[in-house]
Design a protein that fits this description.
This protein is mainly beta and 189 residues long. The protein has one domain: Beta Barrel (Porin). Helices cover 7% and strands 69% of the residues. It contains one helix and eight strands. The protein has one helix at residues 2-15, and strands at 27-45, 48-68, 71-84, 87-101, 109-124, 137-154, 157-169, 174-188. It has an eight-stranded antiparallel β-barrel. A hairpin with a 2-residue loop joins β1 (27-45) and β2 (48-68). The two termini are 33 Å apart. The model has no long low-confidence stretch (mean pLDDT 84).
Length: 189
């Protein structure tokens, strides 16, 4: 079965028009961005819950394919980072997503995006990274989704406003987060 999958991938790459970095959005895409946002988090355990709101730094990375100049289909990872009490916290979303560009007549313009996937949360004391037993890591996984609107300022450069929701669970607690995030993005195509 593995040989058949490898052969199928090789044939797909060899006989398809996977254009890349030719100035047309159609083809292979690779991008990333950074920004800031506000997260509203609720942690529930047993019969009680705690809520807090906080600012966070955001990074994202996407890789995929654009079948046309107005549609992109890709895998994206969005991660919100913050620190507290000598620990680093990362709330992320790894999702299958799509972006639709509203105006295909110009190189700039409005777009909408959205995705659904795997939400995750990591807290760690990264100062212990090089100690004998490594960092103390706590993590949770679950469901996540995002939706957003953006504007391509110039070819390859955009600003985006996203709403992100994550519902994560582990054996001890439930973690729900809603975020409003603004990112500055660069996309190679």
């Amino acid at each position: 079965m593995k040989k058949i999958n490898k052969l199928a991938c090789i044939l797909l790459l060899a006989f398809s028009n996977l254009y890349a970095f030719d100035g047309e959005r159609k083809g292979f895409i690779l991008g990333g961005g950074f920004g800031a946002g506000y997260l509203s988090n609720t942690i529930s355990f047993n019969s009680s819950s705690e809520s807090d709101g906080r600012a966070a730094i955001l990074t994202n990375l996407k890789i995929g394919y654009a079948p046309s100049n107005t549609l992109e289909i890709y895998y994206i990872t969005k991660a919100s980072w913050w620190g507290e009490s000598n620990k680093t916290f990362i709330l992320g979303l790894s999702a299958k997503a799509a972006t639709v560009y509203i105006d295909n007549k110009t190189e700039t313009g409005w777009f909408i995006s959205g995705g659904i996937g795997f939400g995750w949360f990591i807290s760690s004391d990264f100062k212990r990274l090089f100690e004998k037993f490594g960092p103390d890591v706590d993590s949770s996984t679950g469901f996540g989704l995002f939706g957003g609107v953006g504007y391509e300022i110039s070819r390859h450069v955009s600003l985006e406003l996203d709403l992100l929701y994550s519902a994560l669970t582990d054996a001890k607690k439930d973690f729900n987060s809603f975020g409003v995030l603004v990112t500055f993005n660069v996309l190679a195509f």
